[in-house]
Specification:
TPR-like_helical_dom_sf; Serine Threonine Protein Phosphatase 5, Tetratricopeptide repeat; Pentatricopeptide repeat-containing protein, chloroplastic; mainly alpha; repeat; signal
Length: 286
Amino acid sequence: WQLALILLSMMPDARLLPNEITFSATISACSKGGQWLLALNLLSLIPEAGVVPDQFIFNAAIGACEESGHWQLALNLLSLMPEARVVPDQVTRSATISACSKGGQWQPALNLLSLMPEARVVPNEITYNAAINVCEKGGQWQLALILLSMMPDARVLPDQISYSAAISSCSKGGQWQLALNLLSLMPEASVVPDQITYNVAISACQKGGRWQLALNLLSLMPEARVMPDDITHSAAISACDQGGQWQLALILLSLMPEARVVPSEITYSAAISACEKTSGCWHWIF
């Protein structure tokens, strides 16, 4: 982003006028570099340079707000677009919904989604995924499931992100049965579960105190050509901990090097938690 700003500042000396593309690219560079303040500052300087902000410029600026989690600013920019005679598109609304998601603001996010048909903007999978994700963060598992069910009727195909977010939402809501049901429906929808999907499903089992199901899912992953990571193992060990299965928890920990997975602090904490509930752990180790 520094180089982008330098190049932009050099243009007047080279007798070149920055245009919409130049500003849009520079704002986007600042956004990706986590420099949301610089991005918005550039947006404020555009009229001074005799450039009229277009859809790409607003999208880049809202993207900067989304990246930094400033949902209020994202909503404010979206509200300014009609006045600037710029029509928001799928990208604009998806980025704003995603900004609301990062801020845990599920109500304004879903309100934006509901207003899209009125604005003649068709939601795509990115829009729906952002909306399901905000429901997951806001603890609204029922709404997450409703949105997932609405996608086929809207001619939008759910993907791994859609299912993972919905499963995670059920997990956080203590709905482990629904979480596992969603996982079982994925092949029927021609969606292949990935590492994140399995992790949130195992986490749902852990939260529901279903250590057997957690271990079963872990055992199915190699067959599905999905490699478990430290998050997978941590959730499975924690499930064993909650089920009073300290031996299994330690066996899982001991097998991690063989699976080329490095235990994290969370993994060790889960294993230690399993051990502290029994006096037999000390004798088993030594």
